[in-house]
Amino acid sequence: MSFGSKLLTRRGIALLQFSSVGKTPCGGFRTFTTSKANVCGLNISRNYSSTSTVDVELTSVRYKDHVQRGNFAALQPDDVSFFREKLGKHRVITDQSDLDGYNVDWLRIVRGSGKIVLKPKTTEEISIILKYCNDRNLAVCPQAGNTSLVGGSVPVYDEVILSTSLMDAVINFDEWSGVLVCEPGCILEKLNDYLLDRDFIMPLDLGAKGSCQIGGNVSTNAGGLRLLRYGSLHSTVLGCEVVLADGTVLDLMSTMKKDNTGYDLKHLFIGAEGTLGIVTKLAIQCPAKPNAINLALLGMDGFDKVLTTFKRAKRDLGEILSSCEYIDTASMECVTGNLNLKLPISQSQFYMVIETSGSLGEHDEEKLNNFLEDIMEEKIVSDGTIASGSTQIKDIWALRERIAEALLKDGYCYKYDLSIPLTVFDELVQDMRTQLGIGAKRVCGYGHLGDSNIHLNITSETFDKSVHNKIEPFVYEWVAKHNGSISAEHGVGFKKRDYLHYSKPNEAIGIMRDIKKLLDPKGILNPYKVLPSNFSPKI
Amino acid sequence: MSFGSKLLTRRGIALLQFSSVGKTPCGGFRTFTTSKANVCGLNISRNYSSTSTVDVELTSVRYKDHVQRGNFAALQPDDVSFFREKLGKHRVITDQSDLDGYNVDWLRIVRGSGKIVLKPKTTEEISIILKYCNDRNLAVCPQAGNTSLVGGSVPVYDEVILSTSLMDAVINFDEWSGVLVCEPGCILEKLNDYLLDRDFIMPLDLGAKGSCQIGGNVSTNAGGLRLLRYGSLHSTVLGCEVVLADGTVLDLMSTMKKDNTGYDLKHLFIGAEGTLGIVTKLAIQCPAKPNAINLALLGMDGFDKVLTTFKRAKRDLGEILSSCEYIDTASMECVTGNLNLKLPISQSQFYMVIETSGSLGEHDEEKLNNFLEDIMEEKIVSDGTIASGSTQIKDIWALRERIAEALLKDGYCYKYDLSIPLTVFDELVQDMRTQLGIGAKRVCGYGHLGDSNIHLNITSETFDKSVHNKIEPFVYEWVAKHNGSISAEHGVGFKKRDYLHYSKPNEAIGIMRDIKKLLDPKGILNPYKVLPSNFSPKI
């Protein structure tokens, strides 16, 4: 059913014409294969073969001026023997060709030289491993799905890689309360499929869902497409079990929504990126499966109209609004031009993708149509379409989700994941364009308008140090001036740790350090990550 | 419009008859006057006069076997002079008759002997006060609306009372993002009124809203009536400013929904009950005002039918379900019998109050009617009514909210606010009844079914030590066995600190202590609260 035809039924006038959306060449919408992962809409081939992996410069070389190896022990044959004795030889990987995939990140920008991968199956095994590493002063890099965009999930030097991939059991699902209890290695998409069979869904959804693991999602406080509706993991994670650096098992496994018995320690581990402990079990509050999903693509001329549309959507769609995405014209030109995707509405200065999901389809459609009719009549929106059927839904989502992939075709892409007030989304892009002048090929902004989260992207033919120096620290200063966050949903990892002060005052960084020292006195857990590089672990 | 008449229109059969609800004598529904506060549905007269206050036994006497004064300094004339110099004499209260109200809790069970009340107006003043108290080793009891049910907001001995009541300004409201920035002393109800004028609401609602302050709500992680829909304060508080024990101002004032720049420290202070710092500023994500609210009262025979109704409500009402409350027959008999309230449906073994709120009234009504028709036809519900108009809505809510008040008319009431799996709500009540035999006058359960939060109440003619000893630790062991929480939404405060181990393992209590020592090394902030009594502050 088209936007236009719906409007016709209500007020007898056809305000819009729906154009059939062209089929996209690779059908990349929220699909996933084992060889490709869509990370925040970025399709990247992953190759575990050693020939291609060594193409990626070692982090210790590329970032030699910014990091130096901590005073940790180096792996010895006795260590390997210990791990083999505890885990069995098949769950201890030391063969170089097998190690390569665990040492390189998705974006192929950072590469460690970890000599061993351990694959525990139980909390007790993780406890034994960490106690041993802590006693031996061996650094450890926890790794879940390895889809980090900030270099958080691979070693910087030779850290022991602790993979949670074999801890992938659903332990319990309570159909009365909707609370799922599971292990950290469960793949997000598989959990969602498991829940769909029981008329529930996961409260989060990411492009990388086909390979990312829930333990990694929680450890990085992953955001994604459902945050607007169901909130962050700080709200949906009810409990967790964590193994601390010294092997202590910390049981915070409440399955209750309400628990006011003292400091809620689980929040420390949500978003700590494995630097304070390793999450070994989780309880998550899951929402009921919505019966109906509707999607609209809208175009508007003037950023003020974007804001008005958002405000009206919140008011008129209320409880059924589940996504509110923003695409500026430079982003749309990129995705349609570089990937030959068809724009089903006329060209505009700005675009929005609005999704509703609810328990009764006909109600949702009526709300959406009334909302659209009103903003059309009031000339807030210049053109729009409602997707009908899964193909059109996929095609419209592709215009949003494949922007990152399209940008890479420009050459090199400088990427920034920022929280800023939504009222200044376009101002940031304009200011950056002015700042860069002709130095940049393209400056564009898109992202989660409903969550005040913009993805600012700049492209040039190849990496250009002078362009880079014009962007940074300009962009971070701009964000700080607007009280934003220099990492909205991607985390800090290795790459952003030295920019932390743009979003956190010294007092907060000081307390972060104190808590790190408290829970991991030797600093063995995911070193060189999250905390600024001037952090000196007590060793 | 009645439940029955609606059903008639859809399938031509009248399943129910709506009975007009009798007007309640005191109209206590979510109303509040300065002389009465409704705390979790409990109307308690508050009297600041010294004659009545001294009737309450001093905590130091009543609990003399459970607590002893820490090695803090006693207030000296020089201290009073210092505070007067910094705040002016009108914001430093030392007159005994004026002090009394600040020393006694709402329930009139605990009473401190604080010699001074300070009323700062700015963060800087709080910083000066705390730095001074920390240097002088003077203990401090932060106090917001003083509506704690666990003795958290009054001194145990002679702590300096730091009242936030004069810090009650709304600093900013962003109508685009719905983010409210305010001071901690803002009264919850006033904030909600402020937001209603702008088509938004507060994400929490409590019986005590007329006097409780938002800083206290956040410090105690208050739950309340909207938690089912909008989540806990861990999800809606975006940022806060906190003054630490040594006067350090910790700026965690993000107004962004997404901020993944390191450990999210604000969560430490949400629910810390003022033991880690004093919240001086807040940013809160506020939802849009719902346009329509509907309310139904249902009766069912058999606890299995309560569970089925809840599950079906989640599925069929989905996004508009905003409250799902549970009342067992013993609770209903109490509120109707002791307060002469009229039950508008036939007697049942169990009752549920289901509220919907949404953006389009006619849609909500249709969903609610279809849901009710289905569960009626399937004999899940034996009787029910939909409230029409504000009077009927108030009258139905009164049946739920005035239970606590009704229980007090039995004589003495032993009160427990527990999280347990909702499937065992009735089992707990039955087990307690068996445990107590004829010793108890009444054993009943009611509460927030949708949040797995039951209020277990037992009454006897007067306080009976043998009854009490049969209840405790039986109830805590029962809750622990079911992995529940011994304090769902009321917090720990002074009264529950020594029961913490029923819901928290030793490792977690140990880390709580470490964090307390880290942020408040001398232990001056709200001593004798939250942490178990064997905690020894370093002084």
Automatic annotation (TrEMBL), chains A, B:
Signal peptide: none annotated. Gene3D superfamilies: 3.30.465.10, 3.30.70.2190, 3.30.70.2740, Uridine Diphospho-n-acetylenolpyruvylglucosamine Reductase, domain 2, Vanillyl-alcohol Oxidase, Chain A, domain 4. GO terms for cellular component: mitochondrion; peroxisome. Its EC number is 1.1.99.39. Keywords: FAD, Flavoprotein, Oxidoreductase, Peroxisome. InterPro entries: FAD-bd_oxidored_4_C, FAD-bd_PCMH, FAD-bd_PCMH-like_sf, FAD-bd_PCMH_sub1, FAD-bd_PCMH_sub2, FAD-linked_Oxase-like_C, FAD-oxidored/transferase_4, Oxid_FAD_bind_N. It is found in: Peroxisome. Residues 110-289 form the FAD-binding PCMH-type domain. GO terms for molecular function: (R)-2-hydroxyglutarate dehydrogenase activity; FAD binding. The keyword Flavoprotein applies. Its cofactor is FAD. It catalyses: (R)-malate + A = oxaloacetate + AH2. Catalyzes the oxidation of D-2-hydroxyglutarate (D-2-HG) to alpha-ketoglutarate. Also catalyzes the oxidation of other D-2-hydroxyacids, such as D-malate (D-MAL) and D-lactate (D-LAC). Exhibits high activities towards D-2-HG and D-MAL but a very weak activity towards D-LAC. Belongs to the FAD-binding oxidoreductase/transferase type 4 family. This is D-2-hydroxyglutarate dehydrogenase, mitochondrial. It comes from Orchesella cincta.
